[in-house]
Every structure is written in C-alpha cells, then in structure tokens.
Amino acid sequence: MRHPVYEWKVGSFQSAIFNWQSAMYLIVGLGNPGSEYEGTRHNVGFLLIDKLAADAGVTVKRRECHSLVGSGAIEGRRSKLVKPQTFMNLSGEAVACLIAKDELAEAGKSLIVVSDDLALPFGTIRLRARGSAGGHNGLKSIIAALGTNEFIRLRIGIQPEHPVSDARKFVLDEFAAVERRALKEILERSAEAVRSVLRDGIAKAMSLYN
Predict the structure, then answer these.
(1) Parallel, antiparallel, or unpaired for β 152-159 and 111-121?
(2) Which of 42, 66, 136, 162 is catalytic?
(3) Which of 155, 185, 194, 197 has the fewest CB atoms within 10 Å, counting from its CB?
C-alpha cells in the first residue's frame, strides 16, 4: 500500500512533467542587432531577455528563424527566449517563423512580446493580453505577420519628463546616466511580471503589475 505522502509526491511530479511537456511559451524581446544598438532605449526588450536568461541559467545564442534563441524552464514552464535579429521593423518575420516551427496553434496564450514604449513614463510597465501596436514598429510587424493582435505583451516605459522633439533619435540613443541607475530595478520588476504571467496567468499578473 502506497503512503499518502508518496502518492502526493508522485502526483506533483507527474503534474510538473505535464506542465513541461504541454506548455511552451515564446518570450520575445524586441530590439535591433549590432553593437551600435546595445544599451539603447529601443533595445530594452533585448535587455529583459538577457535578464530572464541570466536568472534561469539559459544561454541565448542558438540561431533559429533569424533570431538568437535559448530554451529552458521558467516557473516550471517550457520557455524559449528570443532576440530577433531582423531589425525592429521586420520582427514579425522572426516571430511568425518560430511560431510555425514550434507549431504553436494558440499564439494568444503562448506568445509574450516585450517592447519599449515612448508613450509610457520611464520605468512604468504595462501588461496586456492583446492590443494595437501603439505606433511601435516591432509590434506592428508582428501583428501584420500573424494577422492578429491577440498576444500577450509587456511594454516598458521610456518616456522622459521633458518633451521629445525627435522620437526616432531618442529611442536609438543610449539611456541617460540617471536612467541607467534605475534600470536594474525596472528590469527586475519586468522580469517578475513575465514570470507571474507564466506562474499565475495573464489576468492575475495584470492585477499585480499594472
């Protein structure tokens, strides 16, 4: 006769295996490839992927679908961390390729896209289950490539306190010194928001982090 504790442990282990086998999440950070774009505001999506990868012990360097990719477990969920190398305006090509390759039938539940947002005050984060591109060319490309805006996105605010006269130049500039000092905490909170989506679901994550 099996002991109840043994039964519970077996059940928990089987549940963990089920989660690993059944739940694949594609976590895509948007940015531009190349050393000249490292540390720029438009690459905050790449920075968050690096943070998630470091925390999970994942290396993001495998080349797949015009992207740098790393696979591993985050919150017990099978996850693929992605940094598209197509440049921002063509991000959708990489994302569509990966979704097709991994046969992810329900992108709305399995795709999480991380982007900067010039309309949000610096350091503010917003989780959404769906929505428009909001003027962001990377999101616009993904929506066009997938034919839907039904996917989870995390937007990280980069809007300064002063007016921006040249938006393109601003997003492609490096973070200011005062912003860099705050960036570690912002990325930590953003990473925890993504982990909450995997652990708790998008509805609860939004109530905790928006």
Answers:
(1) parallel
(2) 42
(3) 185
